[in-house]
Amino acid sequence: MKSRKSFGEVEAKVAHMICKSAKKYNIPLEINLNNIFNTTYYENKQYNHDTIQQQKEKLKNVIYPCKGFWEIAADYNIKVLYGMDVHHRGQILLWNELREFANTIIGKETINKLNFKEED
Q: Residue 56: beta bridge partners?
C-alpha cells in the first residue's frame, strides 16, 4: 500500500487473498510502525521535535498502515502483531506513541476486532 494512493477494488481483492492465506497457514500479520515513525518523527533522516499535535496532523498523510486492509483483516480472525524495522534507538523509545498513532489511523473499532497475538 505504500506505493498506492487509494484503497479500491483491486487492493481489497489482494487483501482478501493475503488474509485467506494468513488464516490457512496460521501466519500472523504485522502492523508495521516504520512508516509512521518516518512520517512523524524522522523526516528527511533527521529527528524533529514537533509537538504531539503536530505529529497527529502529519498522520493525515500516512498511507500505511492502510485502514481498508485492516478492516478486511478484522473479519478473518487472524493473529496480528505490531512491529517495526528498528534502525534507531528513538524508534524503541517511541514504541507506545507509534502504536497509538497506528491505532488512530486504523480506527479503534477495527483495532478492537483484531486478534492480537499473545506471547507464547
A: none
